[in-house]
Design brief:
It contains seven helices and six strands, in the order αααββααβαβββα. It is an alpha+beta fold. β5 and β6 form a beta hairpin. The longest helix has 46 residues.
């Protein structure tokens, strides 16, 4: 008889454990972390303890994840208030860049705007190539990676030689009117598989706020 046959029989006949309870109590099996033999009941308790540790670890991860989300949500709320209070475009841009550096601890930030109306309103933030504009307008979600796209590394000036990861966030009001670039000297700060929900919301908030002044 194969081990699989025994396991299948026990699954199909749970009454076996009631009929032979005394025999099961006398069975000794190897300890999972040593050479000595222990009763089957003790082995079951050890298995339950190990499963409990795994569940506790997962619970701690979920709690930490929730706390991290709460902290990020609070930061997004603060930058939202700053954008609402901004009286003009310069104030709105300044509020966004300041919050990203101070609240979100993003060391290198740059943006470019290309409003559909009078470009004079955004002259101080202009300078994106046609390729960058097309790239931003093609993004359904923020893009993260270790490679600077097109000429965007030049937006950071002298820091372009030391940054190793990038996040590109389209600034979407009613339509895409610019691109926000976040950069870090840490290669794993922004990576392709990371979640971008809050980055997307930030782009929508900033784009909507800027559109009011354009």
């Amino acid at each position: 008889m194969r081990s699989e046959d025994v396991a299948r029989y026990l699954q199909d006949h749970p009454e076996f454990f009631e009929q032979y309870a005394d025999m099961l109590a006398g069975i000794n099996i190897p300890h999972p972390h040593g050479g000595r033999a222990i009763p089957l009941s003790e082995r079951q308790i050890l298995t339950l303890r190990e499963k409990n540790k795994v569940l506790e670890s997962k619970l701690r991860e979920l709690v930490q994840f929730g706390e991290d989300n709460d902290a990020i949500g609070e930061k997004v709320h603060r930058v939202s208030l700053e954008l609402i209070k901004a009286a003009d475009l310069d104030s709105a841009v300044g509020a966004l860049l300041r919050n990203l550096r101070e609240d979100f601890a993003v060391p290198h930030v740059a943006l470019r705007l290309w409003p559909a109306g009078d470009p004079a309103h955004a002259a101080a933030y202009a300078g994106a190539s046609a390729e960058v504009r097309a790239f931003a307008e093609s993004l359904a979600h923020p893009y993260c990676g270790q490679k600077a796209m097109f000429e965007t590394a030049q937006w950071l000036g002298d820091a372009s030689d030391i940054v190793k990861s990038f996040a590109y966030v389209p600034l979407a009001g009613p339509q895409v009117l610019g691109l926000l670039m976040l950069a870090s000297e840490e290669a794993e700060r922004f990576y392709p598989e990371m979640g971008t929900l809050y980055l997307k919301r930030l782009g929508e908030l900033a784009g909507t706020a800027f559109a009011r002044h354009l």
